[in-house]
Amino acid sequence: MSDDMEIKLKRCIDIAKSIHFTDEYLLEELAELEHRQWVAWSQNIAANEIVSVERLLRWQSLWVPYSQLSESDKESDRSWAREVIAIIERCKTP
């Protein structure tokens, strides 16, 4: 492992060890972040590329704050958040 990669890994481990949020709080915060990232990405795609009318209408219906999503749509964002949490957990144990 290169020195640069080792430094980055140690930094990741230090950050992961310092996280003390409840699991539910962290999951919801990361899910909301995932939704905001997706909204920004999809709006950029919609503005700069050709997308079908059906896709645009479906995306537009989801361009709302995370709190206004249906539970099934929130669960989709939570699944990505769980992947982030898994990465953080792996970083906790060298």
Can you characterise this structure?
Helix 1 (3-18) packs across helix 4 and helix 2 crosses helix 4 (71-92). The protein contains four helices and no strands. The protein has one domain (3-92). With 94 residues, it is mostly helical.
List the topology elements.
Blueprint: H1 3-18, H2 23-48, H3 53-62, H4 71-92
Helix pairs in contact: 1-4, 2-3, 2-4
Mean pLDDT: 86
Structural class of the helices, strands and pairings?
mainly alpha
Label the overall shape: elongated
The count of β-strands is: 0
- In what range is the share of β-strand residues? under 5%
User: How helical, in percent, are the residues?
Assistant: over 70%
- Which segments are poorly predicted (pLDDT under 50) over 5 or more consecutive residues? none
Number of helical segments with 4 or more residues: 4
Radius of gyration: 17 Å
Roughly how many Å apart are the termini?
A: 13 Å
> SSE order in H/E notation?
HHHH
> What is the number of domains?
1
Largest sheet: none
Brief digest:
With 94 residues, this protein is mainly alpha-helical. The protein contains four helices and no strands.
Entry keywords:
single chain; 94 residues; mainly alpha; 4 helices; 0% strand; elongated
